[in-house]
Amino acid sequence: MMDAVFAEYRGTQPQADDRLSRQLVELGLARLTGPEEAGGSGAGWYEAAELLSAAARHGVRVPLAEHDLLACWLLDATGLPSTGAVRTVCLLDEHGASRGVPWAAGAERIVVVWNAGGEYRAADVDTERLAVTAGFNTIGEPRDTVTADVSILDGTSVPADLVTQLWLKSALVRAIQVCAALDRIVQLSVEHATSRVQFGRPLARFQAVQHLIADLAAEAALARAATEAALTTAVSTDWSGQSLEFRVAAARSCAGHATSVVVRNAHQVHGAIGTTQEHRLHEFTRAALAWRSEFGSVRYWDQRVTDAALAAGASGLWNLVTG
């Protein structure tokens, strides 16, 4: 069902098709995880992950996660109304600015979070009351700079653990999207190798090509397994498990490193055709490369994995990995 929703919108570019937006609202997918009393569908993160993956597999760029899983979730968690507008969310720095905010320029409202004297506060602000400078990531998705004068905002107190959850949820969203893009790249590579004939036989019959595809498929599977483990821990512990941050870090680290191998090998398998604008491969290779660097770089998440392993020590490492 999820794939059917996006099938006719394949390749929809950053500013989402109005028809798709209306259809998502009509089907209850725009606020898939929102409570029913607030106009949501009452679904969970497993369903949301399927929806995000379906959009990524079809190359459809819409702010599903930013609106439902991040901005509106935070409003619900703090007791603020979350209906009636398309939203995104950002964490302001000490200068009242936030860079690389997804979909800010096109949002109707932005949930801004800031630290005020050691206490986090949040406000649901009309975008017109903020200074928004347009920017884009490498696949053309809006990644804007938002600046706010927090002294004039009526903020609501936000517990620090909710801000931590917001960061981990944001990071896991990107891991889910990267994995979906990698799976699509694997599919395209297998289809190309089995259908493309070179020197009188399919590319898939050449041992070198077989090795390239085996490596990229294995890396994509590892990233997906790590991401599914993090998602399972998050859901089963209601985002409060002791090992959750380590599992999210492991998922992001695996997905980040897998992207390097999958993108490189896929373009080698496809050859020159894979670098053309007409072929769809670039829609997914560029997306994976862009998403793996958002909400923490690969190096950042590698360091978090290392820090957790060192903190666990020799006696606690096994439990950290398997617990």
From TrEMBL:
User: InterPro entries from the entry?
Assistant: AcylCo_DH-like_C, AcylCo_DH/oxidase_C, AcylCoA_DH/ox_N, AcylCoA_DH/ox_N_sf, AcylCoA_DH/oxidase_NM_dom_sf
Q: Where is the Acyl-CoA dehydrogenase/oxidase C-terminal domain?
A: 173-293
* Superkingdom field: Bacteria
Keywords recorded for this protein, A-Z = FAD, Flavoprotein, Oxidoreductase
Cofactor or coenzyme needed: FAD
- What is an example of a Pfam family matching this protein? Acyl-CoA_dh_N
Q: Which GO terms describe its molecular function?
A: acyl-CoA dehydrogenase activity; flavin adenine dinucleotide binding
Q: Is Flavoprotein one of the keywords UniProt gives this record?
A: yes
Keyword Nucleotide-binding present in the record's keywords: the answer is no
- Any stretches that span the bilayer, and where are they? none
Instruction: Report the residue ranges that make up the Acyl-CoA dehydrogenase/oxidase N-terminal domain in this protein.
Output: 15-79
What family is this?
A: Belongs to the acyl-CoA dehydrogenase family.
Name by which UniProt lists this protein: Acyl-CoA dehydrogenase
From which source organism is this entry?
A: Mycolicibacterium celeriflavum (Mycobacterium celeriflavum)
What broad taxonomic lineage does this protein's source fall under?
Bacteria, Bacillati, Actinomycetota, Actinomycetes, Mycobacteriales
